[in-house]
Amino acid sequence: MQEAIEKADTLIEAMGWIRRFRDSITVIKLGGSVMEDPDALRHLLVDIVFMETVGMRPIVVHGGGAAISRAMAEANLEPRFIQGRRYTDEATLDIVRRILAGEVNEMIAQLIEDFGGRAMPLNPNGETDNNVLYGEKLTLPGENGEEIDLGLVGHVTRVDRDALDNLCYAGQVPVIPSVCKTADGQLLNVNADTAAMAVAQAMGAEKLIFLSDVNGVRLNKDDPESLIHTLTAEAARELIRQGVIEAGMIPKVEACLDTLTKGVKKVHIIDGRVRHSLLLEIYTNSGIGTEIVNEI
User: Fold this and answer.
1) Taking a C-beta distance cutoff of 8 angstroms, is the pair 277, 47 a contact?
2) Residue 126: predicted pLDDT
């Protein structure tokens, strides 16, 4: 009986958050080790089905770096990275189109369907071209002011908001691979974090959630117990100045701060390997990760 009462208490706690976030857009970025762990992926996708069932409007943006690297190895293609970004030539782009925008995209959408939800894979392949991301080629600044060419790599300049709105209001979960098309139809590889940011900004999302391999922003990067549950933009910038936020977490937090300036209300960084991490972050009072907000 006590266990049943505790379950009921959990539902009551969730009720307030369910009411608050009903009809709101949440963009979830899937990638990294979560994509390689079938159990973690299953729990996350079940969470997404739950979110849609109780009235939220989740949108999934995903990468597929490990799957692309495996396919490149099978094709005897050597991956090349410049400033942390994958250089994409024609052969690599063919793999990105087939694996990321094809197999991985279809797999995620099918799993959501298998778990009782409704999903729409939005990929640019073949006759069923459902592309919703448009962009331009991306170059990086070099040391001497020259532009560094990344090949067929792009950044998103426009999101088809109407298409995503229609799918969300029809009760379907849009599943978007991190690729975009140029005005003349050229497919480009896109960083999944920046693709998710572009979608969240275009949709005026309530939340953007990054699924990470750590539990969030920590006062001591080696101590999970030093997790910061809520972080304002001003406090985040101060922690970067102090060196508390360092290394690979800096660009992620800076990207979160940039997203907050463009209409997204909250950005979350959570450990996607924790069972039902999305539900625990969204529908409980304490959460399990770090939420970054403009101000409290």
Assistant:
1) yes
2) 67
Q: Which two tokens stand for residue 17?
A: 């958050």
- Token pair of 180 as six digits: 């975009």
pLDDT at residue 285 in the model: 86
120: left (phi over 0), alpha (psi -120 to 50) or beta: beta
Q: Residue-wise over 84-121: b if at least 16 C-beta within 10 A, else e? A: ebbbbeeebbebbbebbbbebbbbbbebbbebebebbb
| Chain centroid offset of residue 194 CA | 9
Q: What are phi and psi of 280, to 5 degrees?
A: -65, -35
Report the alpha-carbon distance of residue 245 to residue 194 in Å, rounded. 20
Low-confidence residues of the chain, pLDDT below 70? 126
Q: What is the pLDDT of residue 28?
A: 97
Residue 266, number of CB atoms within 10 A of its CB: 18
- The first and second tokens of residue 276, run together, are 């039902």
The residues facing 135 across adjacent strands are 156
CA dihedral 249, 175, 96, 82 (to 10 degrees): -20
Domains of the chain listed by start with CATH number: 22-37+60-190 (3.40.1160.10), 206-296 (3.40.1160.10)
The residues that bridge with 62 in the sheet, in sequence order, are 30, 177
Q: How far, in Å, CA of 246 to CA of 217, rounded?
A: 10
Alpha helices in the chain (DSSP H): 2-21, 33-36, 38-53, 65-74, 90-95, 105-114, 161-169, 192-203, 233-242, 249-260, 277-283
The DSSP symbol for 225 reads G
**Partners of 25 in beta bridges:** 57
- Residue 73, C-beta contacts closer than 8 angstroms, at least 6 positions apart: none
The pTM of this model reads: 0.92
Cβ atoms of 293 and 232 closer than 8 Å: yes
CA-based Rg of the chain, rounded to a whole angstrom?
19
Residue 174, number of CB atoms within 10 A of its CB: 26
